[in-house]
Design a protein that fits this description.
alpha+beta, 477 residues, 3-stranded antiparallel beta sheet
């Protein structure tokens, strides 16, 4: 009988914080600038330059710690982690080993197996390294220090996850919490959220942990899922063959769906950690923690409860809208302007999601203002424009954030409610389509749909369909 195996997974999640400047200097953290343009003597590791801690980094780290039910270390320090690598200009990284800012937290996730709390061992602050660009054409490696010194928090989970589904649920929940806090945009594709997966397998029922490997280079939830399945299968195969799993760092190649060894896993002593002599300990007062607590925004769980009570929209709508802070903000602001929550929700759930998908965009990329969406809702509700015209106008709102009122006025798109003009047009349509008229009179109800369509065409889509229907039936009697 073949043996059953259990997967044990812990994550190290690195999150780039949304500060305007780096953790220990005043250089910009903006993404996508020309190489080595956001640098100074501090973040390029020049001798004699001294780091100065960015207060906002500490506040963001505290905010994430509080939102993930962690305890705050009111006396915390920075340490030097020494290693030699071209993208690490000082030959050490400033991190926190001995006294991290947050510890012993956890968040609840929900999967097909039910609810479960994933423990958070610690959250610590550190600086990011630079970035190596390998130029195969010139056969050389170039280094860009723009990212060097960008502030990070590293969220280290307990080994509490057992499947790719649990890992995805945990990352999703973490990402939403951090986005709601405004601490980071958490864009995996830009590297502002990165996850390293520590994975081991053991025989089901065993209380002992197996030998773990760490996998790096994972920049999407799908890649993380594939990497977990691939590494689990690789380790089980080794154990089935009677071989040992080696503790090492592996790199996942998502194109080949295969991981390969990068280096044998170092231990903390290999980094020769010692307290950073240039940075004083951080003393966090009760008052400071209280201030951060008071600034904490409403998170998704509370929002969901409030939406059902306050706006009376379906649970499904509320879940989709609150799954993105951007969508939730647009929903609330547009509703505040027009007072029509269900109508705003419909525009977001149907047309907005459709256009996002067609344009391969994320909700965070939405450019239109909540005010313009609210104006469109009011124009439709007042019958100023019909639903067909409204969809056409919304496409312009989505693409260029135009003012729908001005757009409708300029292009003469208002619904024609002049009954005299409507009657005249409908009489013409009846005269031009004797076959459809006779079909309708002989009991074919569908024939009226064709006549409505012809009327709308004649009115350039600007008639009120229910008025057209009413007048048509009256004239056909």
């Amino acid at each position: 009988m073949s043996r059953q195996y259990e997967t044990v997974i812990g994550l190290e999640v690195h999150v780039e914080l949304a500060t305007k400047t780096k953790i220990f200097c005043a250089c910009s953290t903006e993404f996508g600038s020309a190489p080595n343009t956001h640098t100074c003597p501090v973040c390029t590791g020049m001798p004699g330059s001294l780091p100065v801690l960015n207060k906002q980094v500490v506040e963001y780290a505290m905010a994430v710690g509080l939102a993930t039910n962690c305890k705050i270390n009111q006396y915390c320090k920075f340490d030097r982690k020494n290693y030699f690598y071209p993208d690490n200009p000082q030959n050490y990284q400033i991190s926190q080993l001995y006294l991290p800012i947050c510890h012993d937290g956890g968040i609840e996730i929900e999967t097909s197996s039910g609810k479960k709390v994933i423990g958070i061992h610690e959250i610590h602050m550190e600086e990011d390294a630079g970035k190596l660009i390998h130029d195969e054409w010139e056969d050389c490696s170039l280094v860009d220090y723009n990212r060097s010194g960008v502030p990070l928090i590293e969220i280290v989970s307990e080994p509490d996850m057992r499947s790719a589904e649990e890992v995805t649920a945990y990352l999703d929940k973490l990402r939403l919490i951090i986005q709601y806090l405004g601490a980071s945009d958490c864009k995996l594709q830009e590297g502002s959220m990165r996850a390293d997966v520590n994975l081991s397998v053991r025989e089901a029922g065993s209380g002992q942990l197996g030998t773990r490997t760490e996998m790096k280079n994972l920049n999407s939830f799908k890649a993380i899922g594939r990497a977990i399945e691939g590494e689990r299968a690789r380790q089980i195969e080794l154990l089935e063959e009677g071989k040992a799993v080696v503790q090492e760092t592996r790199r996942w190649d998502d194109n080949k769906e295969y991981s390969y060894a990068m280096r044998s896993k170092e231990d903390a002593q290999d980094y020769r950690y010692f307290p950073d002599p240039d940075l004083v300990p951080v003393m966090i007062s009760d008052e400071w923690i209280q201030k951060v607590k008071e600034r904490q925004p409403e998170l998704r769980t509370e929002k969901l409860l409030r939406y059902r009570k306050e706006f009376d929209i379906p649970q499904y709508d509320a879940e989709i809208i609150t799954a993105s802070k951007k969508l939730a903000d647009i929903f609330e602001e547009a509703t505040a302007v027009c007072g029509k929550p269900k109508k705003v929700s419909n525009w977001l759930m149907v047309e907005t999601l459709r256009l996002l998908k067609e344009n391969d965009m994320e909700p965070e990329d939405i450019r239109f203002s909540p005010e313009n969406l609210a104006k469109l809702v009011l124009l439709t509700e007042a019958g100023t424009i019909n639903s067909t015209v409204a969809k056409e106008v919304f496409e312009e709102v989505f693409a260029r954030d135009i003012d729908p009122e001005a757009y409708v006025e300029e292009r003469g798109l208002k619904t024609v409610n002049d009954e005299g003009a409507l009657r005249e047009t409908i009489a013409g349509v009846i005269a031009d389509n004797p076959q459809s008229v006779s079909d309708y009179k002989s009991g074919k109800e569908k024939a009226i749909g064709f006549l409505v369509g012809q009327t709308m065409k004649a009115m350039k889509g600007k008639a009120n369909p229910s008025a057209v229907n009413k007048i048509l039936k009256e004239l056909l009697q």
